[in-house]
Amino acid sequence: MDKTRSRKRTPLRQLSDETLVQRIGATGDRTCFGIIYERYQQRVLSRTWKMVGDKDDAQDLTQEVFIRLLKKAGKYKQQSAFAAWFKVVTYNVVIDELRKLKRMRLVPLPEDDRANPLISDHAEELRHKRMFEMLHERLMMLLENVSADERRILLMKYRDDIPVKTIAAELDLGVSAVKMRLRRARSKVLGLDQAMPRDAALEELI
Hints:
Number of domains: 2
Radius of gyration: 21 Å
CATH topology of the largest domain: Arc Repressor Mutant, subunit A
Strand content: under 5%
Structural class: mainly alpha
Number of helices: 11
CATH superfamily of the largest domain: Winged helix-like DNA-binding domain superfamily/Winged helix DNA-binding domain
């Protein structure tokens, strides 16, 4: 008996994300695509919802992200983990849509992210919640005053911690070029922060 033929094949659901996406890119395998969809649909929905602030819009964008995956799977070269690469794909879809709509909504942080469990006094806890919410709103206002490309690269790096190498590969830039753009974008946001008057209520909380 042919040993090659008798060798058991690895079940599709046990394959890595990277292998599944390679198969999608090579043959458009819908079964592999379905597995990736099951693994990532909720993550993508959560990320797009945070970015646009509307569940219905986020659901539409999530579908668009997976359509984009079908189109771009062949370009995935395993230069980075699939999860990191797919974050960039998600960002690109959302940013493209926001460019069309010419808007960026302010989305308050989830309660779980703002709460500080170490604060026992209820009034103090509420004060801290409000302070972090206002600081978040201020940051989003600052980001509205930079370009879409600057906003995207800052959020990818500092909010979702996407590696610089992954950002560089997706944007077709060198690592040094990405670092330079990050430095410039950071400096721009810091300059805007210094020029923007602080809300009196925020000053009291701080």
